[in-house]
Amino acid sequence: MRPRIALVGDRSPAVRSHTRIPLILDALREREGLDLDAYWIRTDEVGDLGGFEGVWILPGSPYRSEQGAITAARTARENAIPLLGTCAGFQHALLEYARNVCGLSVSHAENDPDAPDPLIRQLACSLAGHEAAVRLVPGSLAERIVGAGRTVERYFCSYGPGPAYLETLEAHGLCFTGHDEEGETRVAELPGHPFYLVTLFQPELAEQRPHPLVRAFAAAAADRAALSRGPDPVRSERGSGPGLGSVGQHA
Q1: By the number of CB atoms within 10 A of the CB, which of 13, 59, 67, 86 ranks highest?
Q2: pLDDT tens by residue, 9-26
């Protein structure tokens, strides 16, 4: 059976990265031999994701449910399920870690614009539509996957982590392994987890398909599927039509 991937996000044709997901899945299958059984799950319909071999929290905020995205990140972190978070997925993975591991009461400025000191703040200069260099920490998971200490990536976001809480997150085990030329945080990973990698940039937008980070995530999901196969979380929901009830929509 194919590795099962939860694509967590509120699917929309207006979000460019969403429109590229089918092309990425095709490239993984045809070029890498990684045939994923992928399901879209809206953030307000996130349930038990424990039976999936991978969780990818996609761009497209503000989400229908901030808590749904946070629950997805927590499930992947606590159950050693490969996690890829991109753009808003990166932001909400940091929120999850800050709240549930560090015990911080922190917010996202897009969802709570009146918060005095949010973890995720509006960027002084929007990165929507921008391309910029990212420097990767030598020996980090991201650097090993990319195969270089510097990469140029594409963004489409206006929010990112502020500096106020980053030392606390690091003190509790999260590692920030990618930064822009000004030193702003762009990549985070969790040592000891089989695959936990979140980026503010969007590898979905790369001309190269699949992006090395996406390929590595898919390979980690395939490894998990090969090691342990639990009950199919979607078998009872599948039908001849495209709708899959509370489980999600087949990609």
Answers
A1: 86
A2: 999 999 999 999 999 999
